[in-house]
Amino acid sequence: MMYRYILLLISVVLFTAPAVAQVDDVHSHWTGSWQTIGPPTGTLMIIGGAASSANYDYFMQLVGDPAAPIVFIPTAGDIFDETNTAYQGLVKAGATNITILHTKQRDVADSESFVAPLRSARAVFIGGGFQKRLAEAYLNTLTHQLMFGILAKGGVIAGSSAGASIQGSYLYGGGPEQKIGFGFMKQSIIGQHYIRRNRMGSIAKILNKEVDLLGFGIDEATAAIIKGDVLEVVGEGKIAMYNPLRPGYTTDSPQEYLFSGDRYDVHTREIIHRSDLLSTSVWTEEQRVELIARVNSGPGRDSFAGKVMIYGSHKLTDQDLRFFLEKLNKPAAKIVVLSTGNDTMRTEGLTLVRRLHQLGGQHAVLLHTINSSKANTDDITALLKGADAVWIGDTRSWQLADTYLYTSVHREMLDIVQRGGVIAGNGAGAAMLSTRLFSEPEKYGWHHGFGFVRDAMIVNPHADQKSLAQMKTVLKQNKRLNAIVLNEDSKLLVEAGRLRLLEGKPIFLYNSATNKTKITAGKEILLNGL
């Protein structure tokens, strides 16, 4: 395996003058004759950050040959050698001929000796970090020109996180002083980490002033593959498309979502293929507003006749599940396991369903999607009609919120517990049972849970001192809240406004005055209300 490193600094190396004519505006020079929005030849792979092994594998499939010369540009980040996570991802995907190209000096980026590897490269992969660093180092340099040249020869330009946003013509996240990206896709603005970091709407704000642009925000471990005018989605998550020229586009609901396998024409700005056709949603904005009010109603209103069971454990034992089935106390109970996320999480949900079957829960079924629109359709909510219990698995609480919060699925779960059913959850699923989500992390703004345990937030068993200090800050800002800090072996029951520790080591309940109440097994305490 050959690894070549080109880390050139002007202070220690002499550079030759560029061998080709320079241009002031590389983007306009290359795209001026394009009849398409994306490159007419070559391929873009735009990854929304946290690239998965499947993303790197797909990139190598596009490259077509593990021995093909690939240039890796780590300049956006802080690690510039083979220990860079993206570099290691390329190697694990089979790449054997990688050149690392890095400088922070524009005159170096303009030198023939620096750009030499780009002349023979079949592909470029741009790593994550701060996209502004990429623009400062390479925009309108010879390096920038030769990346366009790779596309012209039918090659591949890929990037993750900062390496995604830099590919747009308008630089998302570049700040007021740096609004220009490399422009491998014309008339575009590209957001990354878009769903995970709760950045929804940030592109729409920019488009209020830049109305001619097409914007899209990409989820983590998800990529947009662009050839000519066709964008196709691959990976685990979704892409939010923002087209201010679309009929019906409003600032309240500006985005359309694309999922893996969906295709979009970036020239006509319309969806040209859906991989999964949905039944018609009958969910209205009025129903959503009504549900929000219902979830946030005060103590004594909309009280529940059912039970909420909270499990601290991230890994469930058969004993845990038997305990749940015993408390449910209905041999023919219809149980829905609620899940979201990638295929691994879907498989975990199916495994939980099979385990429930083996332990006597013969009527357990899985409800799994990442599509919040699908969560509002009759074919999905039909699974919850007449259900006796829902188990919310340990997936990702932010993704549970993104997919199901304030949807028809959420309403159906409220109906279940209101008519005397059981809602249970473990790990991240347990955290979602409360009114207030905590530590997702806090700065991302995923703060709303399903609200089955009112005026509470459920803190996972592995909270460290920093997390506990942050928890106390949240409590001081929200006077009605209680924080329930779990242990791994905790099994709690909330019923008729009272919380009881059924099994496990003592837990602690904190309030806004940071008072701490110890709860031992068998002890019961009155909460602010279910």
From TrEMBL:
Belongs to the peptidase S51 family. It holds the Pfam family Peptidase_S51. Residues 1-21 form the signal peptide. It comes from the Bacteria. The keyword Heme does not apply. SUPFAM superfamilies: Class I glutamine amidotransferase-like. This is Type 1 glutamine amidotransferase-like domain-containing protein. It comes from Sphingobacterium faecale. CDD domains: GAT1_cyanophycinase. The lineage of its organism: Bacteria, Pseudomonadati, Bacteroidota, Sphingobacteriia, Sphingobacteriales. Keywords: Hydrolase, Protease, Serine protease, Signal. The keyword Ribosomal protein does not apply.
